[in-house]
Amino acid sequence: DALNANGDIADDLKDPRYPLSPEAKDWVKAVSFASWNNEDWALGLWHVMLGQVLREQRIEIGNRWLDGRFHLLILAPSSSGKTLAADQARRVLEGIHVTEERMLDVRPILEATTAALVGSAEHKKVRGQTVTELIPGLLESADILHWDEAEAIFHETSWNVNLLRVLNQAMNPIGSPGNVIGKELRGATNLVRPKCSLLMTAVDFLTIPEAILRCGFYQRVGVMRKVLRPDQRRANRRREKAIVDSGQRAERELGATTEYLE
Q1: pLDDT by residue (tens digit) across 6-54?
Q2: 19-23, 161-165, 173-177: which has the minimum mean pLDDT?
Q3: Interhelix angle for 251-261 vs 82-93, to 10°?
Q4: Residue 184: its pLDDT value, please?
Q5: Which of 96, 110, 109, 261 is nearest to 199 (CA)?
Q6: How far apart, in whole angstroms, are the C-alpha atoms of residue 6 and residue 91?
Q7: DSSP 3-state assignment of 32?
Q8: By the 8 A CB rule, do 41 and 30 touch?
């Protein structure tokens, strides 16, 4: 019901009983420099970033567990600043060192197919012999999958249901049997154990097909939906332009966020 509601169900997540930490305040300010009046999205993005850094942590519930990841879907009208907010998160994530040699691998979903996500295979002739070469998909190594303009997930097709099934498995707890994705690739079997977090933005919608709601995808993600009138969007864009024109930058806040997450 909340997903299909016409009202604003993600107006503001701030609660005066639980003040933000200095680090979270820095991050919210950094997002506001790029995407004005969207502090709620900033807090959702904060959990995506923090969850990926803590992805190996186990939250035990009886004989099962959850991992530390948080997956986010932002829904809002065009020109509401959702992509600008997500881009700030990408700037931070792309600057985080997992080890001295490796940084977080942030990948955009440009082709939303199971082959692009899980991988594919090619047959090649090598010295007269046919050799199968596995081509890894995004889920093989990505730490963050960023799907901008992800409206395709709202349409009920056999292709889409299969795609959502793959994403569901990617969001299952790391290390669990359900987190293993197997695919037969032209004579070869490819097994993928995803550890990525999903960050998705999409233009707002009116309804979601019942079959899509039942497939389990929306039960695994945090959905933040915001309804903004055209005059509100214009006012936000004017404020963002004023910040740019003034020469204000969020470099200190972005740097502080990166340092904290590392």
Answers
A1: 555 444 555 666 788 899 999 999 999 899 888 889 999 999 999 999 9
A2: 161-165
A3: 50
A4: 66
A5: 109
A6: 32
A7: helix
A8: no
> Please, which pLDDT band fits residue 171 given cuts at 50, 70 and 90?
very high
Cβ distance 35 to 233 under 8 Å?
no
Return the sign of the alpha-carbon dihedral for residues 178, 41, 142, 53.
negative
Kindly report the number of other CB atoms within 10 A of residue 60's CB atom: 8
Which tokens in the block code for residue 113? 């197919």
pTM tops 0.90: no
Residues 17, 24: Cα–Cα separation, whole Å: 15
Copy the structure tokens of residue 189.
């079997």
Please list the alpha-helical segments (H only) found in the chain. 22-34, 39-53, 82-93, 114-118, 158-171, 210-214, 230-246, 251-261
Residue showing tokens 């097909």: 209
Q: Are strands 72-76 and 64-66 parallel, antiparallel or unpaired?
A: unpaired
Q: How far apart are CA 38 and CA 233, in angstroms?
A: 11
CA dihedral sign, ordered 79, 80, 86, 92: positive
CA distance 84 to 31: 8
List residues bridging with 132 in a β-sheet: 123
State the chain's mean pLDDT as an integer. 84
Query: Which band of pLDDT confidence, cut at 50, 70 and 90, is reported for residue 159?
Result: low
